[in-house]
Amino acid sequence: MVHILDTRQLGRPGIIAATAVETADGIALFDTGPESTFQNIVGELRKIGAAPEDVRHVFLSHIHFDHAGSAWRFAEAGATIYVHSRGARHLIDPAKLVESATRIFGDDMPKLWGRVAPVPEERVRVLQDGEVVRVGATDVRAIETPGHASHHHVYHWDENVFGGDVAGVRIGSGPPIPPFVPPELHVESWLESIDKIRALHPARLYLPHFGVVDRDIPAHLDQLEERVRRWSAWFRDRMRAGEDEPQLIQPFAEYEAADLLAGGATREIVRDYETADPSFMAVTAALRYWRKYHAQDVAL
């Protein structure tokens, strides 16, 4: 049985989820949410008759704090933490990750993410692309899917895919959008990763932001791809016009909000998207992407 565990990030339902799968070898947890919401996840586990100690396997899509912040808590309770090779060292020693995140979130770090602590090295297991982990009677396969982050995996078992952030953010009645965040946004890789998910033909696509897509998954992926292309082109065109980060933060926030409203979101849901995926981060991410990989396309 699969359960969506709501972290209730910042007291709001439907923003960040962990996905729990009951197996004959304990619970397999896909992402953990931030450490600031650990007690909320404990409460969600109790609703299904489980405790943190019953979580024996934690599969991280990537190591951003909203996805992996509580990994050390579950490792402390005895779980094995599975992660991409590029993310493993930052779980074991999170100092650089904290430094990078602090530049973005500043004094809001404790409120947003809680306590950051290392995962003991003996609890970390690195997974390679295509590697399969047997959990009870379930085979979980890691698939390397960069674009949002270079250290990103989706996980495939039976007819299910846990999509991490590369499969998009979709909240309430809103449409799927790509969470552009620094420093590893890479558009071409993202498009290839969407194709990898398509090729799996999943019946259910589990999203950390938020819940499960269990119908019309091809349309979800098509809409996501369209926005990856269109949003990146929007930034390219504004950069060609000479606009820089300070001039782009508010216009992009308005552009994204209008896109969400046109896609079926209410104004309240637009605010929830902003909580899950702050629009200002897309500006830093996209400017860095174009300047690093396609400088000739944004030259004045």
TrEMBL record:
Keywords: Hydrolase
Family matches, as CDD domains: ST1585-like_MBL-fold
Protein transport is among the record's keywords: no
Molecular-function GO term, any one: hydrolase activity
InterPro entries referenced in this protein's UniProt entry, alphabetically: Metallo-B-lactamas (IPR001279), NDM-1-like (IPR050855), RibonucZ/Hydroxyglut_hydro (IPR036866), ST1585_MBL-fold (IPR037482)
Top-level taxon of origin: Bacteria
Record SUPFAM superfamilies: Metallo-hydrolase/oxidoreductase
SMART domains per record: Lactamase_B
Domain Metallo-beta-lactamase: 15-209
PANTHER family membership: METALLO BETA-LACTAMASE SUPERFAMILY LIPOPROTEIN (PTHR42951:SF22), METALLO-BETA-LACTAMASE DOMAIN-CONTAINING (PTHR42951)
Protein name: MBL-fold metallo-hydrolase superfamily
Organism per entry: uncultured Chthoniobacterales bacterium
Lineage: Bacteria, Pseudomonadati, Verrucomicrobiota, Spartobacteria, Chthoniobacterales
